[in-house]
Amino acid sequence: MGETIAVGSGKGGVGKTSIVAGVATCLAAMGYKVLAVDADIGLRNLDILLGMSDTTALDFGDVLRGDTELEKAIVRCGDLENLHLLNAPYTLEESYDAAFEGMMERAKKLYDFCFVDCAAGLGRSLKMAASAAGRAIVVTTLDKTSLRDAARAVERFDFYGVGEIGLIVNRVRPRLAARAQSPNIDDAIDVSRAQLLGIVPEDERVIISANLERPIILDNCNGAALAYYNIARRLIGEFVPLMRIKNQ
Ligand SMILES: Nc1ncnc2c1ncn2[C@@H]1O[C@H](COP(=O)(O)OP(=O)(O)OP(=O)(O)O)[C@@H](O)[C@H]1O
Ligand SMILES: [Mg+2]
Questions:
Q1: Residue 240 falls within a domain, yes or no?
Q2: Among 19, 24, 86, 91, which residue's Cβ finds the most Cβ atoms within 10 Å?
Q3: In the chain, how many domains are there?
Q4: Taking a C-beta distance cutoff of 8 angstroms, is the pair 225, 217 a contact?
Q5: Protein residues whose CB sits closer than 6 Å to any atom of ligand 1
Q6: Segments forming the whole domain that contains residue 106
Q7: Which CATH number is 157's domain given?
Q8: How far is the CA of 189 from the centre of ligand 2 (A)?
C-alpha cells in the first residue's frame, strides 16, 4: 500500500508541476512505482514535463464518470518503466469530485507513491487532492507574496485533515536573501509554519528541459535535479542535509 502526496501552493507558477515531475522521476529511477496525477482541471501540463504530450487520450474524468477503468486511463512515461501518468480532464462536473478519493484509494494499492499536482490556489483542486492525501507538500518561492499564500495553503491542507505538511522553497537565489532583498529560508519556515522538506535553486535547465519535454534528471545531476533527488530521498525516510546553493 503506497501513499498519496498532494502538491499545492497558494500562488500560481511557483513550480509545483516541475517539482512533481522531477521528484516522481527520481523515485521511479530509484525503483519505486510512481503515479503522477495531474489535478489541474482545464490547465494540465504535467504531461509535457514528463514528455508525454502526444500519447495521452484518457484522463481521470473518464475514470470518475465510470467511462473507463483506472488502469486504462494511466499511461507509462517513456523509458521509465516505473513512472506512470494520469491526466487531468479539460472539464469535469463538480459532482464527480467526491469520487476522486475512492479512485486514489485504488491507485495507492498499485503504486508506492501517488503525487497529485494541484492547480494553484485554495479551491476545488486542492480540496480534491487533500481528500485523498496522507501528506501534502506546499511549494513556494522566496517572494513575500508567494510566502503569504503558501501559509494559507498550509492552513487549508491542515483544515482538510492532511496529517503531515512539508514545505519546498523553489527558485532559491541566495544572493537576494544575503543582501536582505528577499526573505530567507528561515522566514519561509516561520511564515508557512510547515516543516522544510527541501530547497530547489533557480536553474534555467528546469525551463529548458520542460521546453524539450525531457525530464531534467535524465541529463543532469546537480542544481535543481540534485535538489529533486534529495527531496525524493527524504520522502523515503533518508536523512539528507540541505544542499548548499551557490550565489547566482
Ligand atoms: N527551480 C527553477 N528554476 C528556474 N525555473 C523554474 C524552476 N522551477 C520552475 N521553474 C519555471 O517556473 C515556471 C512555472 O513552473 P511550474 O509550471 O512548475 O509551476 P506551477 O506551480 O505548477 O504553476 P501553476 O500554478 O500554473 O500550475 C515554468 O516556466 C518553470 O520552468
Ligand atoms: Mg502546475
A1: no
A2: 24
A3: 1
A4: yes
A5: 9, 12-18, 40, 120, 170-171, 200, 202-204, 206-207, 210, 224
A6: 3-235
A7: 3.40.50.300
A8: 22
